[in-house]
Structures are given as C-alpha cells and as structure tokens.
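User: quick one, fold this
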Amino acid sequence: MTGPTAGWPTLRVADWTATRETLHMWTQIVGKIRMAHAPLLNHWWQVPLYVSPRGLTTSSIPYRTGAFAIEFDVVEHRLEVRSSDAGTESLPLEPMSVAQFYARLLDVLGRLGIEAPIRPVPTEVDPAVPFAEDHQHASYDAEAATLFWRQLLQADRVLGEFRSHFVGKVSPVHFFWGSFDLACTRFSGRPAPPHPGGVPNCGDWVMVEGYSRELSSCGFWPGGGEEGAFYSYAYPAPDGFADRPVGPDGAFFSPEFQQFLFPYEAARAAADPDRAVAEFLRTTYEAAADLGRWDRAALEDDPLRWRRSTVDAPGHVRVG
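Assistant:
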C-alpha cells in the first residue's frame, strides 16, 4: 500500500478478542518482571513497555552488574530475552495458556541466571486469575498480533510528534500493560488532588502516585471503536471539559469512559490520518490546558526551532 494511508492496517477489535486478552496477560508478566528490577520513577514510568521495530520491548533492565531485555517479536513471533552476561534465549509465540507462558518464561530466565520475584497476579482486571492458574486465556493469532503492532507503530509515531511540541514535564510514549494501551502524558506543573482509586485489583496508592500532578493524557488502545480508538482525558478534568468542541469530525466525548475518543477507523479512513490524529491530540489538549489555566507560553515550543538556526559549536553538526 502507498499514499497517506499506507501502514494504517485494518484490525477489528471483535476479530481478535481472545488473542488480545491472552496477549494482555503475557505483557503483564513481562512488565512485572521489568518492574521488579527497574528503579522507581515518578508516575510508574519504570514499568511500561515500548514500541520497537519488531513489536514491544522492555528496553534495557538493570540486573546486578549487567542488564537484560525482553522483547515480543511479532514479526518472527518469538519472545526474545537478551542478557549482557549470559547470551540470548527465546521461546515461540504461539497458542498457549497464560500458565504455560509463565512457566516457560521462568524457565528461560532461569537458564540465563535471572530471578523474577514478581507478584504473579494480574492487575487492573477482574477477575484477577493468578498467572500459574490461568488456563483459559490461550489464544495467539499471529496475524492479528502483527496487525496490532502495526497500529501501535502509527500511534507511536504520531504521539511522538505531538510530544515534541511540549517543553514542560512530559512522559515518554510508552505502553502500559496494566490497561493495555499506548500513552503519552503532559503535566501542567501543579499538584493534583489525590486520585480516588477504585481500579480493579490495583491498590489505590498506585493511582495516587500515577495521578499526583495535574495532567492531560492521550494515547491509543484497542477499544472505544470498531478498530480501537485514540483517547484524551484530563485529571482533574476542568469545568466545561466534556462540552469543549474538538476536532476532527468523528471525535466525541464519551460519558462512559469520561474522555474524548477518536475511533481508529475514522483516522484510518481520513485523507491524511496523521493530520487527523494530530488535530484530535491538539484540540483535546487545548481543552484541558485552556480550561485548566495552564501556563501554555512556558510549556510549549516549536520542535523545529533548531532547524531555523545555525549551530556551529565544536562537536555539533551545523544545521540549516
């Protein structure tokens, strides 16, 4: 496929429900292993996964005097575990239960000399069946996994461009395995009221830390539309937020989810999907920032500013 919609695949949420639920649990296991070894960062930024050229990766995880990384390669359909000290091990991504995946991954880590002291129960889902006892979720549609990753590639790229316009505190573009979504969050710089919690099988203190500062968050998740949806919300939501007009056509405020949604299929069908999603991200952020009285002049800037200047200092490349 060529043209402005190239790379924006079709994947109906209803067509890969079983695989999505299984993959959700698999990513929770891998994410918890990262969380067990990575140092704490504000808002739990040490726990997510990241979109990679092959799938989803933990990135480098410190371990003793070395490091390791775990990657879901959904091109070759293998889980790769790479260690700085003990080489590489892998296991095939294929239909298997969560219990089987958990046991096989622990075996791989054991062969590499890596301990995995995690709480082996999923979070943010109900019921929360312990990984070792979950024989229900056992699907893996390889084609669907690849298509989902290709959706994430598009979302990661557009979110990354949006992120670049903000010079205040802003999160990486990262994949939270608890809620199974790709997210990027901007912060006003002011504290927020304590989050009320109430997320299934997740301590309220987790949400209090995650939402400890006033924010505008956006991302992509495989829900909210026939093929998933881009989303945007504010915490705390300022007065009038839900009623603020946003673009493009097809974007709307969902009373059910208490956030703005822009269905993926609407973005995919747009004449310029990148521009359509960028408009959604910009206008929903502006709703939060303007109504919340953020200091936008101090927090925003043009990421192309350096292209219009000449940098000729020693050790730097001359631009322009």
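User: anything notable?
Assistant: DSSP finds seven helices and twelve strands in the chain.
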